[in-house]
Amino acid sequence: MEITREKALTDLTEYVDSESLMKHSLAVEAAMIKMAKVFNEDENIWGCCGLLHDIAFQKYPESHGETGYDILLKKGYDAEFCKAVKAHCDLTSENRITNMSKSLSAVDQLASFIIACALVRPEKLAGLTSKSVKKKIKDKAFARAVDRDELQKGADELSIDLTVLIDYLIDGIIERENYLNSLEISLL
């Protein structure tokens, strides 16, 4: 099966109607496109993986990794793609062994955290730096639901310094935001 963004978006909207979950999925898509560039991989496949990673979250939050894996496998997505979705959360027994699965896990919370940082700034994403994101990481009252240890763990699994990873994602999200704005869609 050929993986296209159009198919991925159709599949996602079959299971997700929450605006906040859709925006999260778009942010993770942007982050995964950037990580595909970093690892010289297929940007479309990695972006679609980011877009679909939480396909089952709205209906099955406690088992969304496993259920998402099953849904995507039945829809014809290849095993490596589906395993990355399964492994992105620690609720499954799937090991993260590929760069795609490690990246998906690393960017999942971090992409949304960066969006949260942008939302509290008058300039939004413009001029956002890793220094200001790291300052917010230290502020335990900001975006309390984000596990700070998981942010570092994701960078460690990729063997990428957290500051460098944040810089990659800021760039990737800004690049994608420009594209999404042309479609009259906003991450913010």
Task: Report a brief summary of the structure.
By secondary structure, this protein is mainly alpha-helical. 65% of the residues lie in helices and 0% in strands.
Query: Into which percent range does the helicity of residues fall?
Result: 55-70%
Individual helix count: 9
Supply Rg.
15 Å
Structural class: mainly alpha
Report strand %.
under 5%
Describe this structure in words.
- This protein is an all-alpha fold and 188 residues long.
- Helices cover 65% and strands 0% of the residues.
- The chain contains 9 helices and no strands.
- α2 (19-38) runs antiparallel to α3 (43-52), α5 crosses α6 and α7 (130-138) crosses α9 (162-182).
- The radius of gyration is 15 Å and the shape is globular.
- The model has no long low-confidence stretch (mean pLDDT 93).
What topology does this entry show?
Elements: H1 5-15, H2 19-38, H3 43-52, H4 64-74, H5 79-87, H6 99-119, H7 130-138, H8 148-158, H9 162-182
What key attributes describe this structure?
188 residues; 9 helices; mainly alpha
